[in-house]
Design goal:
This is RPW8 domain-containing protein. Keywords: ATP-binding, Leucine-rich repeat, Nucleotide-binding, Plant defense, Repeat. Pfam families: LRR_At1g61320_AtMIF1, NB-ARC, RPW8. One of its GO terms (biological process) is defense response. The chain has a 13-stranded parallel sheet, sandwiched between helices. The protein has a 5-stranded parallel sheet with strand order 2-3-4-1-5, covered by helices on one side. Strands 6-8-7 form a 3-stranded antiparallel sheet. Helix 4 packs antiparallel against helix 5. The chain is of the alpha/beta class. The chain has 6 domains: 115 residues; 145 residues, Rossmann fold, CATH 3.40.50; 87 residues, Helicase, Ruva Protein, domain 3, CATH 1.10.8; 74 residues; 106 residues; 180 residues, Leucine-rich repeat, LRR (right-handed beta-alpha superhelix). The longest helix has 35 residues.
Amino acid sequence: MNDWASLGLGSIGGAVFSELLKLVIEEAKKVKAFKPLSKDLVSTMERLFPLTQKIDSMQKELDFGVKELKELRDTIERAGVAVRKFPSVKWYEKSKYTRKIERINEDMLKFCQIDLQLLQHRNQLTLLGLTGNLVNSVDGLSKRMDLLSVHAPVFRDLCSVPKLDKVIVGLDWPLGELKKRLLDNSVVSLVVSAPPGCGKTTLVSRLCDDPDIKGKFKHIFFSVVSSTPNFKVIVQNLLQHNGYEALTFENDSQAELGLRKLLEELKENGPILVVLDDVWRGAESLLQKFQIKLPDYKILVTSRFDFPSFGSSYHLKPLEDEDARSLLIHWASRPSNASPDEYEDLLKKILKRCNGFPIVIEVVGVSLKGQSLNTWKGQVESWSEGERILGNPHPTVLECLQPSFDALETNLKECFSDMGSFLEEQKIRASVIIDMWVELYGKGSSILYMKYLEDLASQNLLKLVPLGRNEHEDGFYNDFLVTQHDILRELAIRQSELTENIERKRLNLEIRENTFPDWCLNTISASLLSISTDDLFSSNWLEMDCPNVEALVLNLSSPDYELPSFIAGMKKLKVLTITNHGFYPARLSNFSCLSSLPNLKRIRLEKVSVTLLDIPRLQLGSLKKLSLVMCSFGEVFYETEEIDVSKALSNLQEIDIDYCYDLDELPYWVSEVVSLKTLSITNCNKLSTLPEDMGNLSKLEMLRLCSCNNLSELPEATERLSNLRFLDISHCLGLRKLPQEIGKLEKLKKIWMRKYSGCKLPDSVTNLENLEVKCDEETGSLWEMLKPNMINLRVHKEETEHNLNWLQTF
């Protein structure tokens, strides 16, 4: 009997991918001898399982003889054989067998990250039907792939329904009514309308998770539209969410055709529900683009407004008194020394202020949770004194939330108000905000400002989402996302709207196409300026006078973007953040306008295309930190011109490069930044080598090289990094050894090497004293063997955690 027969499959030849994988997963879960290794393999296979189901459903379209699918089948076979042999492996074979399992795991990840993209690209035209005359009708749509595009990971959970992680009160009746209407065959389009903060998104998210709705609709997609909708990006997200490589659309007409072809393809497998969340007034034309006449296709919209021409409306009301009371009690239970009558009286006063808005009840309740009776009384009195809300029979949600802002400490008020400078629904790395605060407020370290974020999160004024292990080493906060409800962003912006635009401390400028407001012609006094442009903006800038700007946030969506020349006049500028919200990296030009800025200390570029040599050319002697995220660099140039980097970037202390997929080697000038203290390169899968001259970085204290799978070795010159105290090489699957003389690094006190099994530890590591190591089980065993020969070695063996929150970054 062969190995597959013993797993209950009989012959592998007739089995479909998902059946094979499902049985292998079940067998692997039974294994106890190789934990956490088997757990790691199971996790990878479970992530792969939905893809195999998709492959099975597309047997007619896909060529199962292609190399990638053959290799996938072979890998699943090897996994099946391996898990069957788990119980019989001898102890002395464990190391060899561990490497075999790891190679299987790596091959599966490789299929997800690389092979599947090749397979998608090969079959894309067939799957979307973009052939023959259809290609001509859309001007070769299928062939217009951006040559500078940076391919993001295959796993892009872009249009899934949000997971609800909070208590839901008072929505049972609306849920039943809404479900009844949505399941009505005569209803094709439906709008859920209500004031902000009433729970529209929560209601619709819960509806999509209802068994009857999931049973009716085979495909349910959820897309946030917001006040600045981009139809092309929404369609691109839908394509990638469904496993297709995103197309570059020249215009909305091409995107409409792409949407139609996608929906026609998907409806073959069952009914479709598309949810468009937070649609604003004026978006009627966008809604019309989704109104495609197809059987078993429905659209559900949430909005503060009605759209009579689009479809019927369901009006969600604020919570009734009893439901509002239950929700408040959930968030803030009775103070221990309060009598029932006192507590009831306080509840009534608070609920009167909250006006039935769930978001207000949540924010207020969290602020009172665990507080004393005197604090409750003081809060209610402060809201009542001179507060117009309690005297207003119909307060708006912003009016209801204003006292929560007023109750903040002064420093938190400033920080919360800054949150309005970022886009609605934007997922912001915590490090972006912290970098800005460090320079704007100039007191304390990044640790202090991380605490400010945690304080605001503890009062439900924003959310902190950990992407990894919820730990940070010396101010590295890339592993936290900050999100904020749109009404809380409006509350932040509201604080600046009490003064004229040109006099505001914080100012948001939104440019649609090429239309500027008239006040831009006046001198602007803001210290924090946020400028947002759409995908139709042609970089035809007005000449603006902004002499006091210290932090500039540029949000762009167009494929080509010229930096405004008036930046050169911002002599006080300390922080520049450029974020592209389009689908592919935007080509930046006029980079030279930054070269005359004497106080510029932090630059962050996200999803833009730049030449790495542009950085030292700027001669930014004050620059302290450079962050490059999801950027495209093209070819790395070496010594094409004479630049004294040690003078051009004389104060640069930190370089952070993350998710830059086409970075295969570092430019020469990085090893000449002798002032550098922190070098962080993470999630750069093409990076294969580091400069041998890295040994010149004598001041380097932290070297982080996480998830760089193609990196095979560290240069031997690493031994010359005499000030290095922290080294992180976690998840570098291709790295097999440490530098031979790593033991010369006397100040090295921490090595993180999670998911780094199969490596060799050089003899010199025994010279390291007071060393702390975090690693997986197998590598930990190697270190444990060295304990008798080392002074104060501490080894922390950790199982791999699989936190999929990182998908939210894209």
